[in-house]
Design brief:
With 166 residues, the protein is mostly beta strands. It has one domain (25-150): Pnp Oxidase, Chain A (Roll), CATH 2.30.110.10. The protein has 3 helices and 14 strands. It has helices at residues 11-18, 65-70, 84-89, and strands spanning 3-4, 7-8, 23-24, 26-30, 37-41, 45-48, 53-59, 73-78, 103-105, 111-113, 118-130, 133-145, 153-155, 158-160. Strands 5-4-8-11-12-7-6 form a 7-stranded antiparallel sheet. A 3-stranded antiparallel sheet has the order 3-13-14, with no helix packed on it. A two-stranded antiparallel sheet has the order 1-2. The chain is globular and about 50 Å long. The N and C termini lie far apart (44 Å). The structure holds flavin mononucleotide (FMN). Flavin mononucleotide binds next to strand 5 and strand 7.
Length: 166
């Protein structure tokens, strides 16, 4: 059991509290010698502007861990509100194949989601061991964004739409 200074930490409550932080949703893709793969994540964050660095975290229990550990590149594809099906599909254990999802090759050799709201093509800058996750820091080699479109939002364990336009 996890503890905070000797007090038992209720993992369910911890997850519920973390879920109050609304995030976007992204698919991280990569490719080694074999099939290209993708996984749904919401742990994406910007890190540095100069040099341009971003990060995301991968559960050590993920089926995709070996592939991401071997690969020196990955691409973060920011999902649109219409990408719920893609998000759900690539959040399922066992099948991370990108078959049937419209992709093109990026400059870093990883597949890129054609309809993504934005993408960040990276080479791995660092991997940090962090509890039950690995933090992947990527140096951005190429990026782009769509001028129009709404993001897929994740909050309290559900997908949401943006409601404030200021
Ligand atoms: C909205 C959303 C965000 C997620 N964020 C992450 C994440 O940041 N890191 C992670 O390792 N898993 C994340 N997951 C879970 C993975 O997508 C899921 O565990 C994985 O695809 C299951 O397959 P695997 O066991 O083969 O990894 C997220 C799932 C959803 C639906």
């Amino acid at each position: 059991m996890s503890t905070i200074e000797g007090t038992a930490l209720d993992q369910r409550k911890f997850r519920d509290a973390l879920g109050c932080f609304a995030t976007g949703v992204a698919v991280v893709t990569t490719c080694t010698d074999g099939e290209p793969i993708g996984i749904t994540i919401n742990s994406f964050s910007s890190v540095s502007l100069d040099p341009p660095l971003v990060l995301w975290c991968l559960d050590k229990n993920s089926d995709t861990l070996d592939v991401f550990q071997k690969s020196e590149t990955f691409t973060v594809n920011v999902l649109r509100d219409e990408h719920m099906e893609v998000s759900n599909r690539l959040a399922k254990p066992g099948d991370h194949s990108l078959e049937g999802i419209e992709m093109i090759g990026g400059v870093n050799g990883c597949p890129r989601l054609v309809q993504a709201l934005a993408h960040f093509e990276c080479e791995v800058d660092a991997r940090h061991d962090a509890g039950d996750h690995i933090i992947f820091v990527g140096r951005v080699l190429h990026f782009d964004r769509a001028v129009e479109g709404e993001p897929l939002v994740y909050h309290r364990g559900s997908y949401r739409a943006l409601s404030i336009d200021s």
